[in-house]
Amino acid sequence: MEHHVVDEISYEAWQKQSELMVDEIDKLLKKHQVKRSEIASVCVAKGPGSYTGVRIALTIAKTIVFALGVPLYLVSSLEIMRDADRPTICLTNARSKRSYIGVYEGEKEILSDRIMDNSQVLQYVKDHLEYVLSGDLEYLGLTGKNVDVISNLNRADKKKNLCLEPLGARPIYLKDSYSDSEIKVIVRKMNVSDITSVMRIEEASFRNPYTEKQMMYELLENPVGNVLVAVVDSNVVGFIDFMITFDSAAINQISVDEKFRKRGIGTMLIGEMVKLCREQKDEVDFITLEVRKSNDTAQRFYKKHAFEAITVKPSYYDDGEDAIYMVRSIIND
Hints:
By secondary structure, the protein is an alpha+beta fold.
């Protein structure tokens, strides 16, 4: 695809990015008589960088792609600082005597984006004098090459940068981590826009996963179906699919992204399900489920949540494995 920059605008906007950016985009569209419906895709830098700047830019980009249904491309804020022809050390100030650093040679990533102490950065530069330096590097006492980052961003609509889950896209700060013990989890009803994330978890969790068509049926067409998702920073990290019929409820599936397991998310999903059961006009008395006889981990999890094994269903699954039928009373907490 041929790319060329038609126009650009850049100026200092201290703490006013959110007030000015949307208006500036609108002005550029009107200036060149481009309708919003003619936007074919959106490319945005995802960080690392300024917390506010990255967050606002990504929020605006996500809003546009959600409204127009167009692709979103995310690219490293450091990668777009690279020189096209030579290995480049891309740097920005991370404060507290640290730098964001990424090293690129064309499309090749030599050193992945990370934070380094400035002393380490200076040593790395000293060890690689043949590399180009890029960035506003006065804080290090260095001079960087003036790279056309707008042109680099304009060419970022490549397969490797395509965001498959635009609404779940989050900034890269490198100063935070999902390994922290405290994460904020929100449990809510599943939306159609969550389908890609849910299917990713589905396919990674089950031996015979639902197809997307089956999952969409549960979400949109099953008259007694309910699907809840657990969300961390706009990312779907777990879900529970269940049915409520008269005085009982049945769990079809529950799963949590492997990176977020053992953090109480499964417990939260079951807790929200129980809450919805108690809110029904017709009182729900018990909850049922089937679990593979070989899945000891899942059976321990369910027993922890007051489910009791009642019987075995022979050859319940398509591959011939037996299922353990489990039940819990709704009054159990």
